[in-house]
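Exam revision sheet. Question 4 asks you to relate a sequence to its structure. Input first:
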Amino acid sequence: MSAAVGEYERVGVPDPYGDRALLTSAMTRGYEAVPGQERDRLRCYLEAVVAARPAPVHTTVAFNAVYFGYDLGGDGYGGSPLHLDDFPVISFGERAPVLPVGAMVCVATGSDPLYAEIVHREGAHPDVGALGDVPAWVSGAPAGAEGPGKAGEDAGPRRRELLVPDLNAFGSALSLSPAQLHRLRTRGRWINEDGHVVVDVCYPSSEAARRDDLPAYADYLLTTAREQLLSPFVPVSLATLVRGTHDDDLQAGLLGLLDTVRGVLNSASALRTWGNYAMTRASLAACWRDTGPLGGDDLRSLAAAVEYAAPSGKRRYGLTTPVTVYTAVGPRLREFPGATELLRGVGYAAAVCRANVALADVVQGDSNQGLFESGSRITLDDAFEGGGVWRSHHPGDAEEPGDPLTPAGRGWTSTLPAQPEAEAELDPVELPLSDDVLLGTSELLRNDARETVWRAPLRLAHLIGGWFPLHPYVVEELRLAHGTRTGLRLEIDHAGVVLDEKEAVQQVTAEVGGEHGRLTGITWPNTFFPGLIFELRRCHGTTVIRLTTTRLKEQVRAGDRETGHFYDPCVLTREDAPGSGHHGDSAAGLGPRQLVMRTVRRCGLLTVDGHALMDRSILPSAVYGRQPARSQSAALEAAVTDLLVEHILEPDRGSRDAWGQPHFPARDREPSIALIGYRPVTHRVIHPWGGTNVSGAGWPAAQLVSGHLRRLRPGCSPSEGQREAFRKHCRGLGKADGWELPYGYTFVTQHIRGR
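Answer key, structure tokens:
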């Protein structure tokens, strides 16, 4: 029975099909772009979902709940208008396509179909022992690996995986009775005795096998489950949220929604996360208090067993023989008396996540970066195989310390040919502002008999010096017609902004004597900033150059900069850093926070979307050009901590090659290093009614509410007007069928609401 409208609100939990949609357009831009009130509503619902579901809730499963409408009243997805026939079919023990956590599937049986949601997934390598003993080469091995140091083929690698389906996710009407489920488990033909499915997954490439869970799930929804994703029957369609159906827009919006869901789960005080899985703190506390199988006593025994798995070894001539042991959590849990029944169904996923959290807490609380007083170093080596593989090494003090909870894959790496030792330390050098290797450059748009049109971003050097480069075609023509120096008329059109007459039309000089010509004597408007993209146009035979900007669909905030015009994110990151502006570029007078931000943005590895990542260990020397005093280092470290807490900077992992150069993502066979990253999250800026004041003081901000489905009270039906509005909504989404409202729902048309 579907929950009636208002039922959730009566207990303080929003409903995905309620009067106010839980997913909003702001959420397609990522967690940092979402207003606090919208985060709170989504957090309230997701906390209730995590508390209601028997297994830890993966970020993708949490996304499913809010996107497809999970009913907390007991029906799960059973009350949602999903097309079950669209689900991929999987068969026990056979080959299967990539099925990430969150995939909704139909498990083949000899009779009625078995609908389920994949809530947990892990490696099921046949060489993992019954006691959890893992051969070194298996820990961290890539998909398709055939043995120690044998990576296998890059194309079409295969890997055996264990999938844990939630067979009750679609409510009692679509679930098996206990007797039916027992028969299926006993036969072991469609599911194994634990109610799980083991399949051989075929990946299109080794790169696809290494992809993180969230991007992999986004690809799955945009391909295999595309009809399900773009269904007009979901509470709010992704196409509506991003206002289009172009693949690039859909992918960006979907990744933004997944980032929002992950951020909300991580920020919920009532929840605890392990990787992308979330569980309630209350359930963890109850587990520690439990004295039965897989309770607190067993978890403490597991932690002790992992710590002492690598004994000191035999002594010979006063030397200690190094010993390394790899332990898979999932198989190891089966050895505890009375654990068999608790590890059936989704109980296995819950037990594995709780065990990993317990091990992580012990490592963080009782060791120094994984090094225990016993002399053993305990680290997580593989987060996927066997529910998680932990590495126990003795003596551990001989190894370089690192983050013990970041999977290092040392088992697999130890079987590879020895790599040359690094001979050089990273020497950070601030990227010169004239270096265009990574930053936006000129792009020719048109060069015909009438005119030359090109596009280029404004750089900080241009802004400070009052000049701008000319395209080589324009340089050559001006030199032939007017010599090496001539006066030109520059007309500036800043789209949507009225400029002062002296700024809109300027007399400038074209210097074209050298190979690279430029306009000089430009007075740039105060609203211009590094990264702002210009389109420049010159009709042949004239002495006029027209420079225009292009408006975005809406005002956005990227980092510290608010703009309504197109910009180059790489240039904005590098050259709009603290201390930069119209009047110069200097770090003098900046505080620790600004120095950290300036250094990361200027010296970090630059990605194509404007992210900058920097080796955290060299930050102090990069800021000051030398090893700073202790007080300066402390101030910088405090600033970094604050920036990480505020999510202005983000932690990540990279690697360093044999020549001391950092890389991101981390490369196989290279030592892992800690990175700090500047992520210029783009926020949509909502202005007050009829004004441009960003603060919105004095007027409530306007909020665009997308069209969405809403559950009706029992006995109610939608009006003919709402039926027609839904048909029109479907046509706008490009949906050629399924134009009628599903039973029990009405359609809320798009509208604007004040907050």
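Marking note for examiners. The longest helix spans residues 247-267.
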